[in-house]
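hey team, just a heads up i'm posting the complex here instead of the shared drive bc the drive is being weird again. everything in one block, sequence lines first with there labels, then the predicted structure for the whole assembly after. its two chains so it's a bit long, scroll down
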Amino acid sequence: MINEAFLQVAPEATEWKLPSSRKVAVVCLILTETGLFSIFVAGYVFYLGKSLTGPTPREVLDLPILSTICLLSSSVTITLAERAFNRDRIGRFKIFWLATIVLAAIFLASTAAEWRRLIYQKGLTISTNLFGTTFYSLVGLHASHVVVGMCLLLLVFIFSLRGYVNIMHRERLQMISWYWHFVDAVWIVVFTVVYVIGR
Amino acid sequence: MATQEIALPGVRPSGVSLVDRLHGLVVTVDHKKLGLMYVGTAIGFLVVAGLMAVAIRLQLAIPNNTLLGPDVFNRFFTMHGTAMVFLVGMPIIAGLGNYLVPLMIGTRDMAFPRLNAFGYWMFLFGGLLLYFSYLGAPGLSGSGSAPDVGWFAYAPLTGRAFSRGHSTDYWILSLLLTSVGSTVSAINVIVTALTMRCRRMTLMRMPLFVWMMIVTNFMIILALPALSAAQIMLLIDRYLGGHFFDTQSGGSAVLWQHFFWIFGHPEVYILIIPAFACLSEIIPVFSRKPIFGYPVMVGATTMIAIISFSVWAHHMFAVGMTSMGNTFFAISTMLVSVPTGIKIFNWLGTMYGGKIRLELPMIFCLGFLFQFLVAGLTGIMLAVAPFDWQLTDSYFVVAHFHYTLVGGLLYGIFAGFYYWYPKALGRLLNRKLGLLHFWLFTIGFHLTFDTMHFSGLLGMPRRVYTYAPGRGWGLLNFITSVGALLQAVGILCLAINILRSSRKGEVAGDDPWDAWTLEWATTSPPPEYNFASAPVVRSRRPLWDLKHPEDPDWKYE
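-- predicted structure starts here --
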């Protein structure tokens, strides 16, 4: 019978490095999320201009310049926060991390304001026409991802205020920032499809 | 449901009460226990969904039968298809992957054990929710029962106007739950295989089983979101008044078909690749030769995965696509047969000149090879768009995909059961009962599905609950139904064998098949920590090297 001990050839000096589990897992998560968003984007593009009744995108949509600037710059601030963290400058880290949260909150608030305007002034709801259905689904799906990201950011911020965040958590923070960059990248696609091409 | 199959001796310490054992199952994060729980639960659902198929066949055995009414019949084929794909196929894959991948790569558990348990419970509750629809779906409106829209739930049948009550909602929500479970379990397997391999097990030294598990799980995380997205859209339609699939407001019923099959076609490869994985381990061991063309097998598997994402609309030749679209999808579909053919030739090449041992796992592999070949050939026939126009939605199609899924997937899984059961439970499955299972099931299989091709060619449409006499389908359908009963008896033999051998089977020892991969290096069943110390490998067949120090593989790699 086989004795397991035989299998342990003396551990050789050769390097044996494998990728980090966390990183591979987050990449897989991002891949599967990409699949989800692709279908919603495909649905939006497929139904462009197919609504039987108004309002049309051209009539009611404005370019969300402010919120786009906020969300894209939040990618910069989170990178700066990470860099400060890696250099062990926790105070600076907290400031940039908070800035990221504030920018995300501004983004969500302006989306909320946009939706309010669309619903109450322009009369566009999810059941008005195909444009309403696809618009609210796609933008809402993205916004829900921003909300999830914000929860993660807030959690880390609260922990850092209480002093629980230290250099051991470096990779975890990196994973949150990867997710955040992904949410930003999706917004670039949504912005292009909904507000530039689709308008 | 699962406890009967999985609380078996060898796994449980003696003298522990039932409550403690159940509690142990609920709180466990051990990949081996979870793997067995997956497989056990899947067998439970296999029996339920299989009995539904038997009921369907009894209804169709003679013309103008009244055993099942039309509404009950619709629910039965919907629940049969949905359960077989999502509650049997997917969890068996997850179970095999969970149990075997950490053992084969020489590590102690999955990368994320708690996530693993979460995946199992999501799957179980999703499955129970689907079957709960029989009680819950009528709801307050008193209409509907279990889902009755077919496993691909074409729009606009699923719209609020045509599917009242909550049956379709149960279909959507239960599948969303199981999809979450499948996704996290898939991520877990990929991460484990990519980041936790033992020392010096490079990617090209992984067992082919692990390779194919990586590929199939990548397909899961890329294809499942298409279904989830479409189902979320359908929920928006049904509950928020959206118009995605609402043809009255300009929505498109065909879009649902596209979205569903963007998931649905990769899904059938997701189901069949694990069977390929089992064969790629079993055939070499029982031919006493290393696998023929290892790198080509890896490449062919990857090619199948890539091509499978560009063939979905061959399910939709009949909806009236452009001739350009038809041509593209016909050609890409035929292209799949190239890497698949490569695999079949590689298995034959492995067997060629080998010292073949006709043990039970190998017998099922041989069954697979013949039947999967036929399934592939009818697949190429159906890829020809004009041929498909004639036979779409006929029993020929039903025969084709059952040939792949029963004659292919299920035979591969059975082979895997007979091969790894001694590892998981420490005892061999009984050979006589196993042979009985094989012959009953194989004869039943051919009676059922060979004849189905002909009733399809004679024009019998699928999903009809009965038919008039004198159309020439009567005898064929009767034979089909007899075959279904034989298959049921065959499965019964397997169930008895699994339960009986767990107590009375011949003790297997650590390595009953004289095999070469790392799972056979530890005890049967493996201890909770799998390996007392982390193994180091120097070739694709570490146990061969160990048993044959005079002529180890690594000299040639």
